[in-house]
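Lab meeting, action items carried over

1. Structure of the two-component assembly. Owner: GW. Status: complete.
Input record:
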Amino acid sequence: MRARIIDRQDVPLLIDLLRRDHEVIAPFYGRGRDTAFDVVTDENRDQVQLHLPNPYYPPKRYVLPHMQRLMRYTLGAQPAVTSDGEARKRAIFGIRSCDVAGLFMLDRHFLGGEHVDVYYKNLRASLFLVNVVCTDREQDIDEDCFCVCADSGPAARENFDLQLMDLGEAIMVVAGSAAGEALFGEAIFRKATQEHVERRRAILAEVRKGFKKATSWYGATMRLISQGEVSDEAWEEVGRRCLECGGCSYVCPTCNCFTVTDRKVGEKEQEVERVRLWDSCALSGFTRMAGGHNPRKAVHDRRNRRFFRKLAHYYVQRQLSVICVGCGRCVNVCHGDIGMPNVVEILRRRSLEQGTR
Amino acid sequence: MPLSAHKLTTCTFCGVGCGIYLESAGGAITGAYPSMSHPANQGRICVRGWHVHEVASSPDRLRKPLIRRNGALEPASWKDAYDFVAERLTAVKGKHGPEAIGFVTSPRCSNEEAYLLQRLARSVIGTNNVVHGLGLYRQTSIHVLRDMLGIPAATSSISELAKSDVIVVDGIDLGKQLPTIGGWVIRAKLAGAKLIATGNRGHRVAEHADHFLQIRPNTDVLLYGAMAKVVVDRGLMNVPFVQAHCRDYEKFLLAIQDFDVLWAAAECGVSPEAIEEAALTYARAKSAMILYSTGVEARGAEAVQAIVNLALLTGNVGKAGAGIMPLAEHNNLQGGCDMGMLPDFFPGYVPVENDAERRRLGALWHAELPAKPGVDLGAALGVNGGAIRALWLDQHDPLRRGAEVDAEMLAKLDFLVTQQMFTTEVSQYAHVMLPVVAFGEEQVTYTSTERRIQLTARAVEPAGGVVPAWLQIVRVAQRMGAAWEYESSAEVMAEIGQAVPAYAAASYENLSREYGRQWPCTIDRPLGAQILFESALPAKGFRFAAIERPAAPPRPPAEYPFVVVLGRSLYYWHRDVLVQHSETLKREYGMLLLDYPEGFVEINTEDAARMKIRDGARIRLVTAHGSGETLARLTGEVKSGSVFIPFFLQEMTRALTSGNHVEGDGQHPLFVRVETV
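Predicted assembly:
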């Protein structure tokens, strides 16, 4: 393991190092308990937090924006198309392991197939990830987190450039890429000792006990869904609690569906921009086809789509993991309390009641 | 807050007033997401809220004032536009008098706009012809709640639903109209609360109800009366509460004797056991909340009175988890009323006929104020109207709303000024159009359905010199000679605090500290009040209403076997202009209109099967007045024996009612025959 140690008070200096070449994004407090990723400036630099609730608005938006202009074009006698150009270099400081796992899934989706999404690629290529391991049971770990079930945390194994872990008396920094390791020449870094490594192991072992929610029937639910053994009644029970807001898709680190539309720019008829927007299979119109047919018109047909996409063997094989990172955001965002853990529980309970084993 | 690109604001769609953050970049709003800490929504918003950022950045907005010259609207300077408006209003006032001018806000206009517009009408023009929402929004709740409780607003808060043992949801599809509150109700039910749903339509939240009383249209007074009678017969009333805090109990008791449960059940179309069980469930609750809609599917005063009676009878006011929540389906319906956009009330619900209060306000506004209540502007602009010669419409298009306003009347006005973000149907009749800023471009306040006065954030600069609506009103007033000096919206709020006692301490500084403040927000209670009357229930401060048992609503004759329900609340957002400017919202709300391109009328699935009508089939509706054709939409949500006509079928509605039908008139329901074509 390529590991170094820095002092706690040197964390802002590490951010400054990154600010030399990147726009650095880091987590800050908003109102009350709200937290968000925002740009680090000279003014707010001192208020970057190492330990705080995971920002709700997911960092996937730095590679797949909520609303993204793809191109502009002008109609008329001299039509022209302009793309929005290269993305500037960005570093996300403080991205959690669950979100790192989510980004990896988006990478496989947008970059790993035959067709490479160039807009995603531009944003992703210029992104430097500084993962922070969740170690503080009061601040970092929400009562709704379950990354240990999804095997995505609390410490990411890969797909980051640097990983920070609070050992108490000092911060361990692990390099996950050549770009990360390149920083190790700076003065703030000193070598890690075997003691530090032991300390890290001990903390990780302890921290795992801090997760209150355990969707321990993930495995059974995956099997039931994959084998089509979930009854209509079970999905209807879930569907009755859904108010079709789309929130589960929007906050989910692994959800990536989008819609595209063209809009006038300003008042001129001739100037148009093409924008890509987050979309959600929770919404009825998502599957409505020209002509009016809608294969997932009923709400429970959309609910079963979501959980199939997250847990079925078909997708797990392609992704090499369950398509849920256990971040717990869907638990927070849902009006009817049908986030992943509760749905896993509903399906488990019903299968027992039905005698399906 | 160290956040720079993120601003906490409140959503401006419905009356929940969810806390939402707007993220901006490069001078545009690029994202939106919920606040986890906000007490009203705690991390959740609805599909509309998730798309506010799209609406704000829409390129279709109006950017320049327009003045109609030679029949066509032409761009003009702001100066010319203000001068023109001031000059025309002065001219109409001079020729026809102040009573010939009307002022209308949308229930989505800010407190600052509403306050200033009614001040312009009253202290500059000299008329009380003001209203929020033309002809659609019955002021019944205001009058009834003022009379019976003393305060025309929700007595409790949204988050209190988590503490309720019993929740009654009356006549509203929460999942569509106020989803965040729908979520609170569903979660309360999951945690063990009992849920009672009443009304003539089924809906998602009603699917969770322990007791769903799907009653015939216009029978709710009977239902609530029968429930109250059950409570009284079983001796389940809260005697100490009634004795200490309520007047007119004996009159109420006398009147309630006539509400026989068996008779009521037969008229309502539900079983007497259902009524009894619902009543017992409600009465036995430690704390119970009633949520009812103030939307236009709401009915007459007696229905609201019957609801309040039940709450008073059982002592469900002034304690945790209990109360009466009149739900505002628009973000500033409550605020617009608080600010006095009402023909018979000044700001703060002071009757215009109250001499002392009128003089006090007159002193604040340096003018003598009119004592005569304003006219019903909706009726005045309907087919039988004519007295109004000039009209000011602030972000409200009555032609889109299916109101009784007649387009011909608008065409005949001497002067019409509109403040709009986008061009809509009414624009073709406007003499002046003033563009307004969008959500996220101004800092103003809105008051939610739980009395929460909240600030919006100014996240980006308005494009192209567009000015906030409130400031436009100030400029026109100044041109008309008024010595108004407001440098900022905060100063407007400071004056509101002087005019409206419940807003006295609601300065922008106070409002920006946490999540706004729930009024009354006064100097000695600057943190506001979550539950009204919690600190002190007024001695004999509440009043029962003695409701005479109404005659049973007439049954449909054989010739016209269905009762019509005219629905304005349920599909309101489908025609809302803002929804058209988000790709996703346009798709979601537009689907129904794509699936049924000629419009639709909803019929119960079983009724349709009996008549051999399939979904999407062409049908003709025939009443004693006229007929119209449309497509049938089958749904189990509509009660058998009734037909639901969405408000946007305006021509159909006019044909069937010959323009004379009054909302919520239980004694003269509209009956219809359905024919296949």
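2. GW to write a short summary for the group page. Key points so far: The first strand of chain A starts at residue 3 and ends at 6. The radius of gyration of chain A is 22 Å.
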